[in-house]
Design brief:
By secondary structure, the protein is an alpha/beta fold. It has 2 domains: 1-77 and 154-218, Rossmann fold, CATH 3.40.50.300; 88-152, no CATH class. It has helices at 42-50, 71-76, 93-103, 108-121, 137-150, 167-182, 194-200, 218-225, 232-248; strands at residues 2-11, 19-27, 31-36, 57-62, 78-81, 155-159, 186-190, 203-208, 211-216. The strands form 2 sheets. Strands 5-6-7-3-8-9 form a 6-stranded mixed sheet, sandwiched between helices. Strands 2-1-4 form a 3-stranded antiparallel sheet, with helices on one face. Helix 3 (93-103) packs parallel to helix 5 (137-150). Bound molecules: adenosine-5'-triphosphate. Adenosine-5'-triphosphate (ATP) is lined by residues 13, 18, 36, 38-44. Residues 4-234 form the ABC transporter domain. This is ABC-2 type transport system ATP-binding protein. GO terms for molecular function: ATP binding; ATP hydrolysis activity. Keywords: ATP-binding, Nucleotide-binding, Transport.
Length: 249
């Protein structure tokens, strides 16, 4: 079953497109990674999927509906962890979690169980009544992650989650992703941490200048680049060389 469908999307910030005819899909229970150089269009792709940017061509379907067709259903079908944490300075950690629970109509009993388990997983039990200004960068990121995993949407959209988290935090995030995948949720994640992407992603989209250079499992990517034993790092470097060759051509 397909959860997210991105069909021939062209879009950008000005009239000049950043994304060119982008197509990919994510199935139920799949973890898909978007990989690409700085400026390749990863965050722009995510902004189109979450609906903060509109495609000039093509369409995006989440559980079979576009944002326009059913805004409430579309928005409740995903939760999003941005690259830079966006928090309310006047709300405590607990209040951030309560606000998220309210926005997603989460039952009180479920809220309590999930809150406790997330606090434990991310080792934040003692910080419940702290305000964001007193948190470190990694802790601020953990608040966003905990809010996202408090609810159970069909799709988690995560923009570069690993930078700033300590190794235990990274493991906790991977544990959460794995647990939700087992319950049937899907994940779209952008990252530069290629070894982790290679290990955990079911499929990978290699984005290059706003176009998909190759997509699929590691086996599919190796075949696309004709590099049978390549790691994701090797493939990425090969893609970089292609870009340099184009620039100097
Ligand atoms: N707010 C903006 N206004 C205009 N152009 C933008 C804006 N944000 C990004 N861009 C341009 O869009 C292109 C894609 O940027 P995007 O942020 O999607 O890249 P990215 O793949 O997420 O990169 P990074 O790895 O650095 O996070 C770049 O050429 C960038 O200059």
């Amino acid at each position: 079953m397909t959860v997210l469908e991105v069909n021939n999307v062209t879009g950008g910030y000005t009239r000049k497109p950043v994304l060119h005819d982008l197509s990919f899909s994510i199935g139920k229970g799949e973890l898909v990674g978007i990989i690409g150089l700085n400026g390749a269009g990863k965050s722009t792709t995510i902004k189109h999927v979450i609906g903060t940017m509109n495609a000039t061509k093509g369409e995006i379907l989440l559980n079979g509906k576009t944002l326009k067709e059913d805004p409430a259903l579309y928005r409740s079908s995903f939760s999003y962890i941005p690259e830079t944490p966006v928090l309310y300075d006047e709300l405590t950690l607990l209040e951030h979690m309560q606000l998220t629970a309210m926005a997603y109509n989460l039952e009180e009993s479920i809220f309590k169980v999930r809150l406790e388990s997330l606090l434990k997983e991310f080792r934040m039990e003692k910080r419940l009544n702290w305000f964001p200004t007193h948190f470190s960068k990694g802790m601020r990121q953990k608040i966003m992650i905990m809010c996202a995993f408090l609810v159970s949407p069909s799709l988690y959209i995560i923009d570069e989650p690993f930078v700033g988290l300590d190794p235990l935090g990274i493991q906790s995030l991977l544990n959460q992703m794995q647990a939700r995948k087992e319950e049937g949720a899907s994940v779209l994640m952008s990252t530069h941490i290629l070894a982790t992407a290679e290990k955990y992603c079911d499929r990978i989209l290699l984005l290059h200048n706003g176009k998909i250079r190759a997509q699929g499992t590691m086996e599919d990517l190796r075949a696309a680049f004709q590099m049978p034993n390549a790691t994701l790092d090797d493939l990425y470097i090969e893609m970089t060389k292609e870009q340099q060759n184009e620039q100097f051509a």
